[in-house]
Amino acid sequence: MKAEKTSVAWDSLPYQITPWVKDAMVTLGFTTMTPVQASTIPLLSQHKDVVVEAVTGSGKTLAFVIPVLEKVIKSMKDSEFKKGYFGAVIISPTRELADQIDSVIQSIIKLQPEDGLQIKSQLLVGSIQSVREDLSDFLLNKPQVLIGTPGRMLDFMSHNSVRTNRCEILILDEADKLLDVGFLNDTQLIVRLLPTQRRTGLFSATISGAGSDIFKTGMTNPVKVTVKSSSINSNSAPESLNLSYMIVDPELKLKILLQMILSFRYKKVIVYFPTNFAVTHFYSLFTDIIERKGLDESEIQLHSLHGKLEAKPRLKTLTKFAESYASKSVLFTTDVSARGLDIPDVDLVIQLDPPTEPDVFLHRCGRTGRANKIGTAITMLNEGREEEYVNFLNVKNVNLKLVNTPDVSDQENEWYDENSRSWLLEDRLRYDHAVRCYVGYVMYYSKHVASSIFRLSELDYLKLAKLHGLVRFPKMPENKYIKEFPKDGWFDDSIDFDTYSYKDITKEETRLVELKTEKRKKERKEKALMKKELKEKNSAWSKKVDNKETKQDRHSKILKKREAVEAEMKRQRDEQDDDDSEVEVDWKDMVRANKKKKKVNSDVQSSGGFFDDL
Ligand SMILES: Nc1ncnc2c1ncn2[C@@H]1O[C@H](COP(=O)(O)OP(=O)(O)OP(=O)(O)O)[C@@H](O)[C@H]1O
């Protein structure tokens, strides 16, 4: 069913919600229902399973929280929940979101009449306390509503002392994410632990992405509730959300970001980075850059949040960002903050790169322009093939407008280059991190679902490396896409890596020892190489000499032989000259005598003993 387009009075519902819940809504400032609430509450509070797809910021949380409370109130009226039992489960993919839902529930149940049965909720997420502690709190406080992330919820429910058979309603918030490979197994195991006779509600701004997987939750005949934007082209984003993009030179992205942060007139900005590492690295760089600009905490505050941080600091950061007093507050984050987060007054979302999964695009943008407040989401697209992303989204009813890319003046350009380089050179660890960011970015790029647009073969690796402050391409298989790959990967020799040191003393000492060993190894290698070359040279010369000598020997032997033959011939000729007259007469005798002489010689040689006897 399609939901109403305008807000609806609480009293106009076909199903009457509990009076104190309705009063609580008004007290909290929700004087009317949003369209998705008006459509969903009556269905889910009574006997229907629902699959709800409604644009970001349209009020889906209350659309399931109210039915959850209604179910529990009704069940409590029938009989009290004994120790170990609960009545409702809400699952969300992230701790922050689970915490946020719990806060919404807390804000309502704080307003319940003190003289009635008391509804309680418990948050079940990892890293805050152990499952054992969760269990002891559960058995002590007897909460009827459980909110948590899939992993912790499953661990908790698998425990013997947790009884699931009074659970009447299961909610999967960001359901397409919970039915995605990463969470599907845990989600299905939780579903199997719950009674089949219960209501199920799936909620997301992009539930269509889950396809037939929605039936893996045990639903048979759900009602589908859809809320699109009220704009003519029924955009998949809310009308109050300005969706735009700018074309950028990939090398200038960070300079443009800085320009946007400093000169745009927004108060609360969320910037999406591709990886956890990029958030940490660029958060440190920008903190330093802002300090160098002479701006203080009252003027601008930077925050960083990503999935590798512990749960407690993550929640703390969110609170600090939400409650920031600075004129400008900027959160650097990843997709961990893409879905569901409802931070008041975020008026600008910047995506340095589009997300790898197209559905996440709307979730990221949807952190602003919520509940009819005006918001702007700007996505940077690298000039070239990435510009096709606009058409790709258009097909999905997501329409982006082109906005001008801010100009970075030569002076700003130089200032940034100088200062970011000086920051990088302060500690070699920063360079190592920059390399990891670069590699992480390439990995990230390879994961884009829209792979015909985001092609590794068309990335400008040189500009990307320069954006990260690198001077050499790290060794990686993708280097095959780099035309005219420089020798050993170096494309800039402006950093002397022998003197580039770590701030950490132990790390630096290790580096120096390694450098020495490396140098010695290199020297030894060079020496060995030189020796080898010399040997090869010498052996080639001596071979030549040897060859020359044998040639000369052979030559002189031939000469000697020739001389001997010539001498013999001469002697014979002389003899002939003396007896010339007898030549004719005695020739035959001479030949005979010669033969005889030869024979005697050979007999003597073959008998062997003749000379021995002498
Ligand atoms: N009936 C109402 N009247 C006025 N404001 C409301 C109402 N219901 C919810 N809101 C406000 O709208 C904002 C967005 O609500 P909510 O977080 O539930 O959106 P959502 O649809 O779950 O968004 P997302 O898809 O991003 O998770 C919240 O700040 C909430 O307080």
From TrEMBL:
Helicase C-terminal domain boundaries: 256-416
Compartments, record wording: Nucleus, Nucleolus
Keywords: ATP-binding, Coiled coil, Helicase, Hydrolase, Nucleotide-binding, Nucleus, Ribosome biogenesis, RNA-binding, rRNA processing
Main location (coarse class): nucleus
One record GO biological process: rRNA processing
UniProt domain Helicase ATP-binding: residue ranges: 41-225
Keyword RNA-binding: yes
Chain intervals for the UniProt region annotation (Disordered): 524-614
Bias-annotated ranges (Acidic residues): 575-584
E.C. designation(s): 3.6.4.13
GO molecular function, one term: RNA helicase activity
Listed PROSITE patterns: DEAD_ATP_HELICASE (PS00039), HELICASE_ATP_BIND_1 (PS51192), HELICASE_CTER (PS51194)
Composition bias type Basic and acidic residues, residue spans: 525-574
Xref: Pfam families: CTE_SPB4 (PF13959), CTT_SPB4 (PF23681), DEAD (PF00270), Helicase_C (PF00271)
Keyword Nucleotide-binding in annotation: yes
Signal peptide segment: none
Domain note: The Q motif is unique to and characteristic of the DEAD box family of RNA helicases and controls ATP binding and hydrolysis.
PANTHER family referenced in this protein's UniProt entry, alphabetically: RNA HELICASE
Family according to the record: Belongs to the DEAD box helicase family. DDX55/SPB4 subfamily.
Official protein name in the record: ATP-dependent RNA helicase
Lineage, uppermost ranks: Eukaryota, Fungi, Dikarya, Ascomycota, Saccharomycotina
Encoding gene, per UniProt annotation: SPB4
